[in-house]
Amino acid sequence: MKILVGKNYDRVSEMTANIIATKVKEKPDAVLGLATGGTPKGVYKRLIAMYNDKKIDFSKVKTFNLDEYYGLSSNHPQSYAYYMKTNFFDYINIKEENAHIPDGLAQDIDEECHRYEQAIKDCGGIDLQLLGIGHNGHIGFNEPDDALHTSTHLVNLHEKTISANSRFFGKDEEVPRQAITMGIGSIFGADEIVLIASGEDKAEIIAKMINGQLSSKLPASMLQIHKSLTIIIDEPIQKHLYAEGVLKEQLKVV
Ligand SMILES: O=P(O)(O)OC[C@H]1O[C@](O)(CO)[C@@H](O)[C@@H]1O
Q1: Fold for domain 2-182+193-221?
Q2: Model confidence pTM above 0.95
Q3: CA-to-CA distance for 170 and 147, rounded, in angstroms?
Q4: CB 98 within 8 A of CB 180
Q5: Which residue's CA is the nearest one to ligand 1's atom 6?
Q6: C-alpha 56 – ligand 1 centre gap (Å)
Q7: Candidates 13, 36, 67, 143: which one to mutate for ligand 1, based on the most atoms within 8 Å of Cβ?
Q8: Which residues are catalytic?
Q9: Among protein residues, the one whose CA lies closest to atom 7 of ligand 1
Q10: Phi and psi dihedrals of 50, rounded to 5?
Q11: Of 28, 159, 181, 233, whose CB count within 10 A is highest?
């Protein structure tokens, strides 16, 4: 596990975008696993800027999003399909058929989950997976539970997640209660994982994820044993990790 520290959210976003851009330069047909939520928005902005400066070409890139709300159509303003279009895909030259997101309106959930897993396999697996982290340690929508799912599945969202996401919806009641998400195994299959977090409010969960026991009650803790995990945090999180003794020494802030 490698930990990198950026001075602030902008630097975390820039460092992450640089890692993705390097991957795409090395492998123009790279398969990227993508995340939604507030945290990756800065990464997408940076990547769009690089694309506009002709520093990155997405024409052969394939992407798989981690998750989608169950029951929302792709043009619902709070669907993750819509998020990806309006925060990223509409501004770059990715081919529509290469950008994959679970179908939130799928009639046959099992079939949809199977189709999604197969599509990842057919593309040769994920080269680089971008992840955020929920305050309860969820990755994708893999919520803390007695057991974890390996592959793409339908999940009941936790109250904490529903209320965290209610900021994007008009009312709490409008937040979907279920989602289709890649499983821990689908995420783990990625050759390389980059998890990003910014802000003091994520410090506690990052400390637990790095230092805690591997547990299905903290899905992100599983990442400790991934072969290539980079965690990119900002200075406030590093200060907390150092104060708690999770980091024995302060890392260079870049
Ligand atoms: O980046 P945010 O908005 O804090 O979200 C954290 C996590 O929560 C989710 O948005 C889902 O609740 C994930 O996609 C994300 O990784």
Answers
A1: Rossmann fold (3.40.50)
A2: yes
A3: 32
A4: no
A5: 134
A6: 26
A7: 36
A8: 67, 136, 138, 143
A9: 134
A10: -65, -40
A11: 181
Question: How far is the C-alpha of 19 from the C-alpha of 218, rounded, in Å?
Answer: 26
184-223 burial, b for 16+ CB within 10 Å, e for fewer?
bebbbbbbbbbbbbbeeebbebbbbbbebeeebebbbbbb
Write the single-letter amino acid at 155: V
Which tokens hold the place of 207? 């400390």
Which residues are near ligand 1 (CB < 6 Å)? 35-39, 132-134, 141, 161, 165
pLDDT tens for the chain, 254 residues long, are: 999 999 999 999 999 999 999 999 999 999 999 999 999 999 999 999 999 999 999 999 999 999 999 999 999 999 999 999 999 999 999 999 999 999 999 999 999 999 999 999 999 999 999 999 999 999 999 999 999 999 999 999 999 889 888 888 877 778 999 999 999 999 999 999 999 999 999 999 999 999 999 999 999 999 999 999 999 999 999 999 999 999 999 999 99
- Where do the domains of the chain lie? 2-182+193-221
